[in-house]
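Hi V.,

Quick status before I head out on leave. The structure for the redesign project is tokenized and pasted below; the design run finished overnight.
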């Protein structure tokens, strides 16, 4: 939580700071509102969006999960054992991400339960032939599903994806 922002960063006060950590160190920080602020997420001025939690690509074996948003990725990483990366918003998928994920047997997109989430899953599916889309219930995302139903709801759907093949 940003309590005492640096000069010029006052807009981030009261937001959760989410660092993008790579083997070389912190490469970006995004800020998430926690009290229904608008916008929900803010980034540093001039920063380009990138894949979140990239180290999961190096520890994953046959499959990897993809969430829409950093916070959902953090929930997956802390509440499950499934390797997960996050894309910071449905519109921030970049074509070169497909090259990163192409070597996995299965890419499981945990899509938010709305039109944007479904389109996010379809967009990734069009670029990769190894995608399973797991849609969250209407109006929900990974975080809200875990709070309401626990991680087992998501674990069961992931098990279905990785045992089907």
């Amino acid at each position: 939580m940003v309590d005492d922002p640096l000069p010029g960063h006052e807009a981030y006060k009261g937001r959760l700071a989410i660092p993008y950590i790579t083997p070389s160190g912190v490469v970006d920080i995004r800020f998430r509102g926690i009290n229904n602020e608008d916008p929900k997420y803010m980034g540093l001025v001039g920063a380009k969006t990138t894949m979140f939690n990239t180290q999961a690509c190096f520890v994953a074996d046959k499959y990897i999960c993809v969430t829409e948003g950093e916070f959902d990725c953090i929930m997956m990483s802390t509440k499950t054992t499934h390797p997960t990366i996050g894309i910071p918003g449905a519109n921030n998928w970049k074509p070169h991400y497909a090259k990163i994920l192409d070597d996995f047997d299965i890419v499981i997109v945990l899509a938010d339960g709305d039109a944007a989430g479904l389109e996010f899953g379809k967009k990734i599916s069009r670029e990769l032939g190894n995608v399973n889309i797991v849609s969250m219930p209407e109006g929900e995302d990974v975080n809200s599903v875990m709070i309401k139903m626990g991680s087992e709801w998501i674990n069961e759907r992931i098990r279905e994806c990785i045992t089907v093949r």
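Above is the designed sequence. The radius of gyration is 16 Å.

G. will cover questions while I'm gone.

Best,
W.
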